[in-house]
Amino acid sequence: MPLALLALAIGAFGIGTTEFVIMGLLPEVASDFGVSIPTAGLLVTGYALGVVIGAPLMTVLGTKVPRKRMLMLLMGLFIAGNLLSAVAPAFAVMLIGRVVASLAHGAFFGIGSVVAAELVAPHKKAGAIAMMFTGLTIANVVGVPLGTFIGQSAGWRVTFGIVAALGVVGLAGIAKLVPELPRPEGVHLRHELAAFKNAQVLLAMAMTVLGFGGVFAAITYIAPMMTHVAGFADGSVTWLLVLFGLGMVAGNLFGGKFADRALMPMLYVSLGALAVVLALFTLTAHNKIAAGVTIALIGALGFATVPPLQKRVLDQAHGAPTLASAVNIGAFNLGNALSAWLGGLVIAAGFGYTSPNWVGAALAAAALVLAFLSAALERRDGAHGTATASGTPAEQRTPVHH
Fold first, then answer.
1. Hey, is 216 helix, strand or coil?
2. Least buried of 111, 133, 325, 373, by fewest C-beta within 10 Å?
3. What's the count of helices (H) and strands (E) in the chain, helices before strands?
4. Is the pLDDT of residue 138 over 80?
5. Confidence band for 402, pLDDT divided at 50, 70 and 90
């Protein structure tokens, strides 16, 4: 794997840390600004919606900019947003800082996925994408728990200051290691937009929204769920996030490996198992050991869907993949925003801190239904294509025995 993937992974590490570290610090931020936990949850929803809007917006703005330079500009935006969060005098200002940082997220992973895939041989594309996303998953093993620990002991503002510094390291890595890749000739914005007429691209994005949304429904409220229901001390949230991160690393690498071999079966298994595990979390959340195991499994199964879904979008949007790739990253975050909001609703309605797990299970099950629908449509279109190529209807080609 080329060294340039390391630079992309460093950028991904910083972005992953800022995206997920807020989950462990929600109680501290809520207390500092004098807002409720569901209101503090808007820092998750706001970030996620910023990714949804920023992914296509930044990608479109960057169509005329060389990919390497665009990646560097995006890291600059990320640094600015985290600095604003670190010094925010009011909750609204912190929310703005989160949104500014989030605008870089979708386009960075979208353009980064295309760059990663171009750096390797065709049969290694999903593996290369997974390698970049390893930065995001390792952030959950190292960056997020460390950021949570620092935030709980030295103050959450210090955490966001450190995250901004990580962005500076990522920017320097991209400047030094990522090669200047020529833009593909003849690809214009209308070609990029044409990918969205493909039903398979839209289905893959819908699976992304629902599948990863299932993960975030549970994980957004992990701190109050584990302290109030499982009976963990506040400090234990740090190592519970390490378990979640270890699961993500394993799931991401496993998903990347098997997506290059059997993409759709990989999705059936991971989405089906994710729905079951999220439903079980409503029970296992009451036991410390069982809760820890379940959190690791949610991370593994959730992230096992990321490389196959990202590769499916790149495959289906072949010829003009950059915008579709970025929008699919936005789709992950639309799922995050939707599920964080729904999770907050069921908690606010009085169903308890484990109720978001049921929301997550329902979302993952819906994604599995779409995966089967996508495969059925592909088989139908394939059969139709074969029939058309022969010039006769498929049923007329079947030999008739008298």
1. helix
2. 373
3. 18, 0
4. yes
5. very low
